[in-house]
What we know:
Helix content is 22%, strand content 41%. By secondary structure, it is an alpha+beta fold.
Amino acid sequence: xxxxxVIVLIFMLFGCNNLNNDEVISEYKTLYENYKNVxxxxxxxxxxxIITTKFDExxxxxxxxNERSIILDYTKSDSQYNVNVKTLPDGLELNSWHxxxxxxxxxxxxxxxxxxxxxxFILSHKILSSVYPLELEKEDILGISKPxxxxxxxxxxxxSSDAAKxxxxxxxYNYISYNDNIFELVDIDAKYKVVMNTNSIISTSIVGTMEGxxxxxxxxxxxxxxxxxxxxxxxxxxxxxxxxxxxxxxxDDGSNVDTIKNKEDFIQYLLKVGYKKTSDNxxxxxxxxxxxxxFDFDNKVYILKDNGISYEYYWDEDLGISNGCTYDFTxxxxxxxxxxxxxxxxxNVSKNSFFxxxxxxxxxxxxxxx
Length: 370
Protein backbone atom coordinates (compact mmCIF):
# COMPACT_ATOMS: atom_id res chain seq x y z
CA UNK A 1 0.00 0.00 0.00
CA UNK A 2 2.84 2.39 0.92
CA UNK A 3 4.56 1.60 -2.37
CA UNK A 4 1.39 2.49 -4.32
CA UNK A 5 1.09 5.80 -2.44
CA VAL A 6 4.73 6.65 -3.21
CA ILE A 7 4.16 5.95 -6.92
CA VAL A 8 1.01 8.11 -6.93
CA LEU A 9 2.90 10.96 -5.24
CA ILE A 10 5.71 10.73 -7.79
CA PHE A 11 3.21 11.04 -10.64
CA MET A 12 1.49 13.96 -8.90
CA LEU A 13 4.77 15.81 -8.34
CA PHE A 14 6.61 15.14 -11.56
CA GLY A 15 3.98 14.05 -14.04
CA CYS A 16 4.29 11.28 -16.57
CA ASN A 17 7.14 11.50 -19.09
CA ASN A 18 5.58 9.19 -21.68
CA LEU A 19 5.48 12.00 -24.21
CA ASN A 20 5.06 11.84 -27.95
CA ASN A 21 8.21 13.78 -28.82
CA ASP A 22 7.24 14.27 -32.46
CA GLU A 23 3.92 15.84 -31.49
CA VAL A 24 5.54 18.15 -28.93
CA ILE A 25 8.21 19.28 -31.41
CA SER A 26 5.60 19.82 -34.13
CA GLU A 27 3.43 21.89 -31.78
CA TYR A 28 6.41 23.97 -30.68
CA LYS A 29 7.54 24.63 -34.26
CA THR A 30 4.02 25.72 -35.24
CA LEU A 31 3.88 28.22 -32.37
CA TYR A 32 7.46 29.36 -33.06
CA GLU A 33 6.41 30.49 -36.54
CA ASN A 34 4.15 33.09 -34.89
CA TYR A 35 7.24 34.83 -33.51
CA LYS A 36 9.37 34.97 -36.65
CA ASN A 37 7.52 37.92 -38.20
CA VAL A 38 5.51 39.17 -35.25
CA UNK A 39 3.99 42.65 -35.73
CA UNK A 40 4.20 43.64 -32.08
CA UNK A 41 5.19 42.03 -28.79
CA UNK A 42 6.36 42.72 -25.25
CA UNK A 43 9.16 40.64 -23.72
CA UNK A 44 10.42 40.73 -20.15
CA UNK A 45 13.77 39.00 -19.86
CA UNK A 46 15.85 38.19 -16.76
CA UNK A 47 19.36 36.81 -17.16
CA UNK A 48 21.76 35.66 -14.42
CA UNK A 49 25.39 34.69 -14.90
CA ILE A 50 28.20 33.43 -12.66
CA ILE A 51 31.54 33.73 -14.47
CA THR A 52 34.55 32.01 -12.89
CA THR A 53 38.00 32.76 -14.31
CA LYS A 54 41.22 30.69 -14.16
CA PHE A 55 44.58 30.92 -15.92
CA ASP A 56 43.99 27.73 -17.89
CA GLU A 57 41.78 24.65 -18.11
CA UNK A 58 43.73 22.58 -15.55
CA UNK A 59 44.46 25.35 -13.04
CA UNK A 60 43.03 24.92 -9.55
CA UNK A 61 43.54 28.60 -8.66
CA UNK A 62 40.38 30.69 -8.99
CA UNK A 63 41.36 34.19 -10.10
CA UNK A 64 37.98 35.88 -10.21
CA UNK A 65 34.27 35.19 -9.72
CA ASN A 66 31.90 37.66 -11.34
CA GLU A 67 28.15 37.50 -10.76
CA ARG A 68 25.92 39.70 -12.92
CA SER A 69 22.28 40.05 -13.86
CA ILE A 70 20.71 41.73 -16.87
CA ILE A 71 17.03 42.71 -16.88
CA LEU A 72 15.54 43.58 -20.25
CA ASP A 73 12.13 45.05 -21.08
CA TYR A 74 11.56 45.04 -24.83
CA THR A 75 8.58 46.24 -26.86
CA LYS A 76 8.10 46.09 -30.62
CA SER A 77 5.11 47.76 -32.23
CA ASP A 78 5.15 47.64 -36.02
CA SER A 79 8.31 49.59 -36.96
CA GLN A 80 8.76 51.21 -33.53
CA TYR A 81 11.03 49.76 -30.84
CA ASN A 82 11.72 50.41 -27.16
CA VAL A 83 14.49 48.66 -25.23
CA ASN A 84 15.18 49.15 -21.51
CA VAL A 85 18.25 47.41 -20.10
CA LYS A 86 19.30 47.28 -16.44
CA THR A 87 22.45 45.57 -15.19
CA LEU A 88 23.20 44.40 -11.65
CA PRO A 89 25.02 44.77 -9.33
CA ASP A 90 26.37 47.96 -10.95
CA GLY A 91 22.89 49.47 -11.39
CA LEU A 92 23.46 50.80 -14.91
CA GLU A 93 20.31 51.53 -16.94
CA LEU A 94 19.98 52.36 -20.63
CA ASN A 95 16.70 53.21 -22.35
CA SER A 96 16.46 53.47 -26.13
CA TRP A 97 13.73 54.06 -28.71
CA HIS A 98 13.82 53.75 -32.48
CA UNK A 99 11.26 55.86 -34.34
CA UNK A 100 11.30 56.95 -38.00
CA UNK A 101 14.99 56.21 -38.71
CA UNK A 102 16.11 57.96 -35.52
CA UNK A 103 17.45 56.38 -32.34
CA UNK A 104 16.83 58.13 -29.01
CA UNK A 105 18.96 57.24 -25.98
CA UNK A 106 18.55 58.01 -22.28
CA UNK A 107 21.60 57.06 -20.21
CA UNK A 108 21.97 58.20 -16.57
CA UNK A 109 20.10 61.44 -17.25
CA UNK A 110 21.87 62.18 -20.54
CA UNK A 111 19.44 62.33 -23.47
CA UNK A 112 20.59 62.34 -27.09
CA UNK A 113 19.66 61.09 -30.55
CA UNK A 114 21.20 60.14 -33.88
CA UNK A 115 20.03 59.07 -37.30
CA UNK A 116 20.06 55.31 -37.76
CA UNK A 117 18.21 52.89 -39.99
CA UNK A 118 16.09 50.15 -38.44
CA UNK A 119 18.58 47.55 -39.70
CA UNK A 120 21.45 49.38 -38.00
CA PHE A 121 19.46 49.73 -34.78
CA ILE A 122 18.76 45.99 -34.62
CA LEU A 123 22.39 45.20 -35.44
CA SER A 124 23.66 47.50 -32.69
CA HIS A 125 21.23 45.97 -30.15
CA LYS A 126 22.51 42.40 -30.37
CA ILE A 127 20.57 41.27 -27.32
CA LEU A 128 17.30 41.65 -29.23
CA SER A 129 18.05 38.41 -31.05
CA SER A 130 18.21 36.73 -27.63
CA VAL A 131 14.66 37.46 -26.51
CA TYR A 132 12.79 35.34 -29.03
CA PRO A 133 12.13 31.60 -28.72
CA LEU A 134 14.79 29.32 -30.18
CA GLU A 135 14.36 27.83 -33.63
CA LEU A 136 14.62 24.08 -33.09
CA GLU A 137 14.60 21.06 -35.35
CA LYS A 138 14.06 17.45 -34.33
CA GLU A 139 17.79 16.70 -34.49
CA ASP A 140 18.48 19.55 -32.04
CA ILE A 141 16.65 17.75 -29.23
CA LEU A 142 18.11 14.77 -27.38
CA GLY A 143 15.09 14.30 -25.15
CA ILE A 144 11.93 15.92 -23.79
CA SER A 145 10.54 15.73 -20.27
CA LYS A 146 7.59 17.31 -18.51
CA PRO A 147 9.02 18.53 -15.17
CA UNK A 148 5.79 20.04 -13.86
CA UNK A 149 2.25 20.81 -14.90
CA UNK A 150 1.29 24.31 -16.08
CA UNK A 151 -1.94 23.91 -17.99
CA UNK A 152 -0.41 20.66 -19.17
CA UNK A 153 2.04 22.54 -21.41
CA UNK A 154 5.46 22.87 -19.75
CA UNK A 155 8.26 20.93 -21.43
CA UNK A 156 12.00 20.65 -20.91
CA UNK A 157 14.16 20.04 -23.98
CA UNK A 158 17.62 18.51 -23.55
CA UNK A 159 19.64 20.10 -26.37
CA SER A 160 22.26 18.44 -28.51
CA SER A 161 25.79 19.86 -28.53
CA ASP A 162 25.20 21.59 -31.88
CA ALA A 163 21.91 23.10 -30.69
CA ALA A 164 23.55 24.28 -27.46
CA LYS A 165 26.27 25.99 -29.51
CA UNK A 166 23.57 27.66 -31.60
CA UNK A 167 22.00 28.84 -28.36
CA UNK A 168 25.31 30.37 -27.25
CA UNK A 169 25.80 32.18 -30.56
CA UNK A 170 22.26 33.59 -30.64
CA UNK A 171 21.69 34.23 -26.94
CA UNK A 172 24.34 33.94 -24.26
CA TYR A 173 27.19 35.66 -26.12
CA ASN A 174 25.03 38.74 -26.58
CA TYR A 175 24.58 39.17 -22.84
CA ILE A 176 28.12 38.53 -21.61
CA SER A 177 29.91 40.41 -24.40
CA TYR A 178 31.58 37.42 -26.03
CA ASN A 179 31.76 36.49 -29.68
CA ASP A 180 33.57 34.00 -31.89
CA ASN A 181 36.46 36.42 -32.40
CA ILE A 182 37.45 36.46 -28.74
CA PHE A 183 35.87 33.36 -27.18
CA GLU A 184 36.80 29.77 -28.02
CA LEU A 185 34.05 27.46 -26.79
CA VAL A 186 35.34 24.19 -25.31
CA ASP A 187 32.24 22.61 -23.74
CA ILE A 188 28.57 23.42 -23.15
CA ASP A 189 25.56 21.78 -21.55
CA ALA A 190 22.10 23.35 -21.71
CA LYS A 191 18.40 22.72 -21.17
CA TYR A 192 15.57 24.71 -22.70
CA LYS A 193 12.22 24.97 -20.89
CA VAL A 194 9.05 26.10 -22.62
CA VAL A 195 5.57 26.98 -21.34
CA MET A 196 2.98 27.16 -24.10
CA ASN A 197 -0.76 27.03 -24.63
CA THR A 198 -2.72 26.25 -27.77
CA ASN A 199 -2.16 29.75 -29.19
CA SER A 200 1.27 30.94 -28.13
CA ILE A 201 4.53 30.40 -26.30
CA ILE A 202 4.06 31.99 -22.87
CA SER A 203 7.64 31.81 -21.62
CA THR A 204 11.00 30.19 -22.24
CA SER A 205 14.01 29.61 -20.01
CA ILE A 206 17.54 28.44 -20.71
CA VAL A 207 19.69 26.86 -17.99
CA GLY A 208 23.20 25.58 -18.45
CA THR A 209 26.96 25.89 -18.22
CA MET A 210 29.70 26.56 -20.72
CA GLU A 211 33.47 26.90 -20.59
CA GLY A 212 36.25 28.01 -22.88
CA UNK A 213 39.04 30.49 -23.59
CA UNK A 214 38.33 34.22 -23.51
CA UNK A 215 41.37 35.59 -25.38
CA UNK A 216 44.00 34.40 -22.86
CA UNK A 217 41.83 33.49 -19.87
CA UNK A 218 39.90 30.30 -19.13
CA UNK A 219 36.33 30.94 -18.01
CA UNK A 220 33.43 28.84 -16.75
CA UNK A 221 29.99 30.38 -17.15
CA UNK A 222 26.83 29.26 -15.36
CA UNK A 223 23.80 30.90 -16.97
CA UNK A 224 20.03 31.11 -16.59
CA UNK A 225 17.79 33.13 -18.88
CA UNK A 226 13.99 33.54 -18.60
CA UNK A 227 11.80 35.30 -21.18
CA UNK A 228 8.10 36.06 -20.68
CA UNK A 229 5.99 36.99 -23.72
CA UNK A 230 2.81 39.05 -23.77
CA UNK A 231 0.65 41.30 -25.98
CA UNK A 232 1.41 39.31 -29.11
CA UNK A 233 0.38 41.53 -32.06
CA UNK A 234 -1.18 44.09 -29.70
CA UNK A 235 1.76 45.74 -27.88
CA UNK A 236 2.14 49.53 -27.92
CA UNK A 237 5.24 51.71 -27.47
CA UNK A 238 5.36 54.15 -24.55
CA UNK A 239 7.06 57.22 -26.06
CA UNK A 240 8.35 59.92 -23.63
CA UNK A 241 6.49 63.22 -23.80
CA UNK A 242 9.81 65.08 -24.06
CA UNK A 243 11.20 62.93 -26.90
CA UNK A 244 11.89 66.06 -28.99
CA UNK A 245 14.31 67.29 -26.32
CA UNK A 246 16.55 64.33 -27.16
CA UNK A 247 17.30 66.09 -30.47
CA UNK A 248 19.04 68.96 -28.66
CA UNK A 249 22.12 66.74 -28.42
CA UNK A 250 22.69 64.92 -31.70
CA UNK A 251 25.61 62.59 -32.35
CA ASP A 252 27.14 63.13 -35.77
CA ASP A 253 27.18 60.61 -38.60
CA GLY A 254 30.42 59.14 -37.27
CA SER A 255 28.39 57.39 -34.59
CA ASN A 256 27.67 54.66 -37.13
CA VAL A 257 30.07 51.94 -35.98
CA ASP A 258 30.30 50.62 -39.53
CA THR A 259 32.04 53.80 -40.72
CA ILE A 260 34.75 54.43 -38.10
CA LYS A 261 37.63 56.10 -39.94
CA ASN A 262 39.43 58.07 -37.21
CA LYS A 263 39.65 58.81 -33.49
CA GLU A 264 36.67 61.18 -33.59
CA ASP A 265 34.45 58.40 -34.99
CA PHE A 266 35.65 56.05 -32.24
CA ILE A 267 34.83 58.68 -29.60
CA GLN A 268 31.29 58.83 -30.99
CA TYR A 269 31.10 55.06 -30.45
CA LEU A 270 32.28 55.49 -26.83
CA LEU A 271 29.56 58.08 -26.20
CA LYS A 272 26.93 55.73 -27.64
CA VAL A 273 27.85 52.89 -25.27
CA GLY A 274 27.91 55.07 -22.14
CA TYR A 275 31.37 56.64 -21.78
CA LYS A 276 31.43 60.28 -20.67
CA LYS A 277 33.97 62.97 -21.50
CA THR A 278 35.60 64.17 -18.26
CA SER A 279 38.33 66.33 -19.84
CA ASP A 280 40.11 66.75 -23.16
CA ASN A 281 40.91 63.32 -24.61
CA UNK A 282 39.73 61.51 -21.45
CA UNK A 283 36.58 59.35 -21.52
CA UNK A 284 35.30 57.37 -18.54
CA UNK A 285 32.67 54.66 -18.07
CA UNK A 286 31.74 54.20 -14.38
CA UNK A 287 30.11 50.82 -13.89
CA UNK A 288 29.75 51.53 -10.14
CA UNK A 289 31.70 53.02 -7.23
CA UNK A 290 34.21 50.17 -7.48
CA UNK A 291 34.75 49.64 -11.21
CA UNK A 292 35.73 52.25 -13.83
CA UNK A 293 37.03 52.10 -17.41
CA UNK A 294 39.02 54.98 -18.93
CA PHE A 295 40.36 55.83 -22.39
CA ASP A 296 43.25 58.32 -22.05
CA PHE A 297 44.08 59.26 -25.64
CA ASP A 298 46.89 61.69 -24.69
CA ASN A 299 48.90 58.90 -23.05
CA LYS A 300 47.58 56.10 -25.26
CA VAL A 301 46.51 54.12 -22.22
CA TYR A 302 43.36 52.24 -21.25
CA ILE A 303 42.79 52.02 -17.49
CA LEU A 304 40.70 49.49 -15.60
CA LYS A 305 40.24 50.72 -12.02
CA ASP A 306 39.00 48.00 -9.68
CA ASN A 307 38.64 48.56 -5.91
CA GLY A 308 40.92 51.60 -6.07
CA ILE A 309 43.71 49.79 -7.93
CA SER A 310 44.56 50.84 -11.50
CA TYR A 311 45.49 48.31 -14.18
CA GLU A 312 46.90 50.22 -17.15
CA TYR A 313 47.15 48.88 -20.68
CA TYR A 314 49.35 50.88 -23.10
CA TRP A 315 48.05 49.88 -26.50
CA ASP A 316 50.95 51.29 -28.56
CA GLU A 317 53.49 49.22 -26.61
CA ASP A 318 51.29 46.22 -25.69
CA LEU A 319 52.39 46.80 -22.11
CA GLY A 320 50.61 46.45 -18.76
CA ILE A 321 51.47 48.39 -15.58
CA SER A 322 50.04 48.20 -12.05
CA ASN A 323 51.54 49.13 -8.67
CA GLY A 324 55.18 48.67 -9.68
CA CYS A 325 54.45 45.61 -11.83
CA THR A 326 55.32 46.03 -15.53
CA TYR A 327 54.24 43.23 -17.86
CA ASP A 328 55.20 42.92 -21.56
CA PHE A 329 52.38 41.10 -23.35
CA THR A 330 54.49 40.54 -26.48
CA UNK A 331 56.98 38.44 -24.53
CA UNK A 332 54.88 37.54 -21.45
CA UNK A 333 57.86 39.04 -19.60
CA UNK A 334 57.93 40.79 -16.23
CA UNK A 335 60.10 43.92 -16.55
CA UNK A 336 60.13 45.51 -13.10
CA UNK A 337 59.56 43.97 -9.68
CA UNK A 338 57.63 40.75 -9.29
CA UNK A 339 54.07 40.61 -10.60
CA UNK A 340 51.62 38.47 -8.66
CA UNK A 341 49.23 36.10 -10.41
CA UNK A 342 46.31 38.38 -9.64
CA UNK A 343 48.16 41.40 -11.07
CA UNK A 344 48.91 39.54 -14.30
CA UNK A 345 45.31 38.37 -14.45
CA UNK A 346 43.86 41.86 -13.90
CA UNK A 347 46.22 43.35 -16.51
CA ASN A 348 44.91 40.73 -18.93
CA VAL A 349 41.36 41.72 -18.00
CA SER A 350 42.24 45.36 -18.74
CA LYS A 351 43.69 44.45 -22.13
CA ASN A 352 40.73 42.23 -22.96
CA SER A 353 38.30 44.99 -21.99
CA PHE A 354 40.15 47.43 -24.27
CA PHE A 355 39.97 45.05 -27.21
CA UNK A 356 36.30 44.35 -26.55
CA UNK A 357 35.53 48.00 -27.36
CA UNK A 358 37.86 47.87 -30.36
CA UNK A 359 36.09 44.80 -31.76
CA UNK A 360 32.59 46.06 -30.98
CA UNK A 361 33.28 49.38 -32.69
CA UNK A 362 34.65 47.69 -35.83
CA UNK A 363 37.85 49.75 -35.59
CA UNK A 364 40.24 48.18 -38.09
CA UNK A 365 43.53 49.89 -37.16
CA UNK A 366 44.74 50.99 -33.71
CA UNK A 367 46.83 53.71 -35.38
CA UNK A 368 43.56 55.55 -36.00
CA UNK A 369 43.41 56.30 -32.26
CA UNK A 370 46.62 58.38 -32.41
